[in-house]
Write a structure and sequence with these properties.
The protein has about 475 residues and is of the alpha/beta class. It has 15 helices and 14 strands.
């Protein structure tokens, strides 16, 4: 930056600093020529004033007031031309300047102000070019880091290294996405905060530095940092959305047995998971109308905190996970912990499996949720339904069709039969559960006899009807219907 101390050394100008030595390090932002007594209304501060001395005044009081006005307005100093109004700077002016540390430079009579202006502008232009060039170099480093996919932490590290400060990127909820300190950590109380808007992502770039404020060059670099961080957050969001979609496709294909072993292993490995390891299905169902993506993100953050390797996706009614698990106790403990942490959710758990068998784990987790009302429903709760899930669809469909016949397509008859069987054929209890009179329930079971040829009062037929309901439940679990 151009400073007062630089002017006496400028070739061909022969300028001398004759007063205000303490202010020799003052930065000069511009040069202005004026001979009026008070030019401050037209000045912003930081200027070097060029004067022939005509506005200084003839008496000591006016000369001191002149210096006082310029100093209080924040000017960098004054160049006093000799041989016009004064042969030398007035003693009162010099004394006031020394007292205030306000620089006064003398200009020989033969040196025109335009020479000083040209020298200063050349220096300022070179300085500005150097500042912009330096900032562009940082911008190029940031851009390359974004293109290389080096992540948010690398971007913050580049900025912190250049600015020698503490930096953090914080999301809307106050969660720190990336943080870096050049040297000791500086608290972010009162830090410079720059908003970052990237599509639907909102974040803040915080910068803190001890000892000195951020100047124009620093702010230019931070502006480039804002842009780079916004691109990175947008890229991460796009990649995340794509990964979630691809993860959902993989879980669907595993669940519906559309893959062979080789393809399943390849696609599992594409998500950074070892296909030779065991993974268990976790299905997390939100309480009420909560967004499943918000729930997925919350559970994913907890799994990451526990250093559990996982694959996840969001469905309209649930969040689905495959979590690495070697033993049953591991995944059951994890599911219990998640259910306690996330208020009101229910968690379905499938058995740990490898390769194509992971698809069966997903089916078991959903069937467990359908078969139980517990906060944590596991494949261990399936009972006979576990056996049904191991039978081919064709066999199950044939059995349901043979035993239930048209009744299988009648929801209120199926619901009534299920309630009666689940209460051990206690008619009053089943009617109360359904909210109907027991005569109405008896009437429905007579309709069942008409359509299927079977009635729950007959012990042997009761067993067949119960197995048919379980078979229908297994089919529904495989097809993703509750």
């Amino acid at each position: 930056m151009l400073r007062i101390r630089d002017f006496p050394g400028m070739a061909g100008l022969a300028l001398r600093l004759v007063a205000g030595e303490r202010g020799r390090d003052a930065a000069v932002r511009w040069v202005h020529v004026s001979d009026i007594p008070d030019p401050t209304p037209w000045l912003e501060g930081g200027e070097l004033l060029l004067s022939n001395g005509y506005g200084v005044g003839a008496d000591e009081a006016a000369q001191r007031a002149y210096v006082r006005r310029l100093a209080e307005h924040g000017l960098a100093g004054v160049c006093f031309a000799l041989g016009f109004a004064f042969a030398e700077p007035p003693p009162a002016l010099v004394a006031e300047a020394d007292e205030r540390g306000f620089p006064v430079l003398t200009v020989p009579y033969e040196v025109p102000f335009v020479a000083i202006s040209k020298a200063a502008f050349t220096s300022l232009a070179s300085e500005e070019l150097e500042r912009v060039t330096h900032a562009l170099a940082v911008h190029e480093r940031l851009s390359q880091a974004v293109l290389d996919g080096r992540g948010l932490q690398t971007l913050v590290a580049i900025l912190a290294s250049h600015l020698r400060c503490s930096l953090a990127v914080v999301d809307e909820s106050g969660r720190i996405l990336a943080e870096r300190h050049q040297g000791s950590r500086i608290p972010f109380d009162g830090a410079l905060e720059l908003p970052i808007l990237a599509e639907e992502v909102r974040a803040t770039l915080r910068a803190a530095r001890a000892g000195r404020e951020f100047d124009e060059e620093d702010r230019l670099v931070l502006h480039h940092g804002q842009t780079a961080v916004a691109f990175e957050l947008a890229r991460r969001r796009a990649v995340s959305a794509t990964e979630l979609r691809l993860a959902g496709d993989l879980l669907d294909d595993l669940e519906h047995e559309r893959l062979d072993e080789r393809e399943a292993a390849r696609r599992i490995a594409a998500f950074g998971l070892d296909p030779e390891r065991s993974y268990a299905a976790l299905l997390v169902v939100p309480a009420g109308p909560a967004a499943s993506e918000d729930l997925r993100a919350s559970v994913a953050a907890e799994l990451a905190r526990r250093a559990v390797r996982y694959l996840s996706t969001a469905r309209p009614d649930r969040a689905a996970f495959l979590v690495e698990s070697r033993q049953d106790d591991d995944v059951l403990g994890l599911a219990t912990s998640l259910a306690e942490r996330e208020a009101g959710v229910r968690v379905g758990v499938g058995r740990p499996a490898r390769g194509l068998a992971v698809g069966r784990s997903l089916i078991e987790a959903r069937a467990a949720l359908d078969a139980s009302s517990a906060r944590v429903a596991t494949y261990q709760d399936l009972g006979s339904l576990e056996l049904m899930l191991n039978l081919p669809d064709a066999a199950l469909e044939a059995y349901v069709d043979r035993v239930l016949g048209p009744t299988a397509g009648n929801p209120w008859l199926v619901e009534s039969l299920a309630a009666l069987l689940e209460t051990g054929c206690r008619w009053s209890d089943a009617a109360d559960r359904l909210g109907v009179h027991r005569h109405t329930l008896r009437y429905r079971m007579e309709r069942l006899r008409e359509q299927s040829g079977r009635h729950p009062d007959d012990p042997e037929q009761r067993m067949e009807l119960w197995l048919a309901l379980r078979a229908a439940q297994a089919l529904a679990a495989r097809r993703g219907a509750g």
